[in-house]
Design goal:
By secondary structure, the chain is an all-alpha fold. The chain has helices at about 1-5, 15-20, 25-30, 35-60, 65-75, 90, 100-125, 135-155, 160-170. The protein has 9 helices and no strands. The chain is elongated.
Amino acid sequence: MEMFWRRGYASTSVADLTAAMGINPPSLYSAFGNKRALFEEALQRYSGERARYLNEAMVEPTARAATLRFLAGTAEAATLPDRPAGCMTVQGGLACAEEDREVVELLATYRAGTRQALLERFEKALADGDLPPGTDCAALARIVVAAAEGLNVEAAAGAPREELLAAAALGAALVPGV
C-alpha cells in the first residue's frame, strides 16, 4: 500500500513491490494475480483506514462542524509521521499512462464516494434547516472535496500540519450558516 501511495500506480514496478514485500514475483502473482489486483487490495485497505474520520464527520451536529471535522481529519491523516504524506487516491493516479486509464477511473470512483457522503450530509442539513434554503449541496460537496484534495497535495509537498489545520478551519467557513 505504501509503495503505491508514495510512488503512484504507474511508477511502482513489480520489482519494487516484491522487494518491499520480501517475496519473489511468482509469489506476488500467485497471491494477487497481477499488479492491478494488488493495487485494488491496497486501495481497499487504504480506504478502510481513511474512512474513520469521514464517518466521524458525518455524525457531527451541523454541516459546518461536519466539514471542519472532515477537513481537519484530512489534514491530520495526510501528515501522520508513520505514513506517506498526502493521499493515495489523489497521488496514485497522477502520472498514469493511457493504458492505465482504468486505475485513474478507479481512484476517481473512490473520491466520488467521499463527495457523495458529503452531499448526503449537506442534503440532510438543508432538510433540517441547518443550511440556508437554496444552498447548492452538490456544489458545496464538490468544493469541500476540492479543499480536502488540496490539503493532501499540500501535505505531500511538505506543508506543516499546523498550517493545514488552519486551512481546514478556513475551508469549513465556506459552509453557510443559517
